[in-house]
Amino acid sequence: MKDFLKKVIEENKKRIRYVGVDIDINEIDTKLVPLIGSKANPMVIYLKMKSKIVRNGWIDYEGYPIKKYYYDKGFLAMTMSTRQMAEEFDVNRKSISKAVHLLDELGWISIDKLKTKKNFQLQNVYVFGFWTKENGGKTVEIFFNSPFREYA
Fold first, then answer.
1. Which phi and psi (to 5°) does residue 23 adopt?
2. pTM for this one?
3. How many Cβ atoms from other residues are within 10 Å of residue 24's Cβ?
4. Residue with more model confidence, 144 or 5
5. Domain that residue 96 falls in
6. Which of 81, 82, 89, 121 minimizes the number of CB atoms within 10 Å of its CB?
7. What is the greatest pairwise CA distance in the chain?
């Protein structure tokens, strides 16, 4: 019996455990920021960026084929300029840039470049992971190196 319990304990240590965060995107500033301490915290910025991921039903804007080039190929991605994120997330651009680079270094996101037809500039596309369908048709979203795993 003792060997069995040791084996169970060792197997349990190897198991990956996840903590779910059940918070509405509109409540991040009121419920999460007071715990973390700043809207500029990379975790807060990550969650806000994550809420902008292009998914099924998205209609691409002219010159910004994010759904066509990313979602339709199985990737979870979003695009916004640092200026747009700073305005929408109520954080300065420098904090956005720092957080984005840290998230990239940690492997939570991957930064891709998309040449837009509109102004012939490269637009950053932030890729968070990929999605797939399980048997039974349930969509599963898998995020790079972040602690977040979701079923859509």
1. -140, 135
2. 0.78
3. 9
4. 144
5. 2-151
6. 121
7. 70
Give tens-digit pLDDT for 87-132: 999 999 999 999 999 999 988 999 999 887 766 678 899 999 998 8
Query: What residue spans of the chain are helical by DSSP H?
Result: 2-14, 33-36, 42-50, 66-69, 82-89, 93-106
Give which of 103, 84, 104 is closest to 93, Cα–Cα: 84
How is residue 24 written in tokens?
């509405």
Class of residue 123 by CB neighbours under 10 A (exposed 0-12, middle 13-18, buried 19+):
middle
| Amino acid letter, 144 | F
Q: What is the pLDDT of residues 33-86, one digit of tens each?
A: 887 778 888 888 998 999 999 998 899 888 788 999 999 999 999 999 999 999
Task: For the chain, state the CA radius of gyration.
Answer: 18
Count of structural domains, the chain: 1
Tokens of 18: 């996840």
Give the Cα separation of 30 and 86 in Å (integer): 18
